[in-house]
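ESCALATION

Customer reports they have been waiting on this structure for their group meeting. Please prioritize. Original submission:
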Amino acid sequence: MVDPVGSLISDCFYNGQIENAGISPDEWVGTSGLFQEHAVCWYSTELLVDKKEKLFKKDMSYRNNCEVQQVRTLLQRLDMVLAGQGYEDEVSVLVLAPYSAQVYALDRSLSSVSFDSPGLRLEVNTVDAAQGREADVIIFSTTRSNQDHQIGFLKDLARANVALSRGKFFLAIVGDASFFDRVESPFKRVLSFIRSNPDISAVEIIQS
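Update from on-call: job pushed to the front of the queue and completed.
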């Protein structure tokens, strides 16, 4: 993975003890700065009126439709960049979410998108199913956002590590940063790292 993603993983999950492989973003020609400014970016939904999760009692799983739309927008932007550059090599994108209801919502929404980039390969799955996998781009939908500060198994360090360490070139996190600032979890640590390293990562607050 590129150094910004590797540094986040090393600092947040391994006390800085992991060495990066030193992959250069230049190996993926031209996409850096067009898809997102930095290799690591947290897209915060904190200002959006529909940012809250919904619980589906039938299977006790959570869905966040606001994040589904933001993930869709991100993928359309990536596709536009790749197609605009005439990039024909395969680009693997793994969209992850911690809850099956969110995976279903993402998969249903993204299945209707027509991509212009011929090499774009998309998979949508749960965090647990991503163990041992990797992709060029990881987009992670945190899903949780509520007034009760309930975060569920997003407190689990191993799951957070798996969710964020699958990407080689880009890591995009979509979720309510203000919510994770208030709840003790690995993602609060991730936010702290991102804000402390503005040269390699960023928090982008979505305005609308």
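Sent to customer with the following note: The chain has one domain: 3-205.
Escalation resolved.
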